[in-house]
Write a structure and sequence with these properties.
The protein has 4 helices and 5 strands; from the N terminus they run E-E-E-H-H-E-E-H-H. It is α+β, with helices and mostly antiparallel strands. It has a single domain, classed as Multidrug-efflux Transporter Regulator, Chain: A, Domain 2 (Orthogonal Bundle). A 3-stranded antiparallel sheet has the order 3-5-4. A two-stranded antiparallel ribbon has the order 1-2. Helix 1 crosses helix 2. It starts with a strand and ends in a 5-residue tail after the last helix. The N terminus is likely disordered.
Amino acid sequence: MTTASTGARRTGGEGVSIVLADDELTTQQAADILNVSRPYLVRLVDAGTILSHRVGTHRRIRREDLERYRLERDVRRRAALRTMVNDAEEAGLYDRPEVVASEVGRPR
């Protein structure tokens, strides 16, 4: 996140910083980027899976936190897909496609 200190002081003695608008996202913008619904994204935020902070009553998500979540999610997805492909290869499903229909839903 790009910030720049203005050097200005508020009456409480706190520093002021300027944050570029593109560095923080609304929950709708973040949901659009992840291609998920906003309510689902809010559940991820409430669970602490995606970091956020509040601006008044509104949640804001730093772009870098969203990208970190997306990268971790993609790694998990690829690993699960790799496992599924390996299981299918071991079962010979790529060699015998007619077996797929009879094997679907059958416990191992």
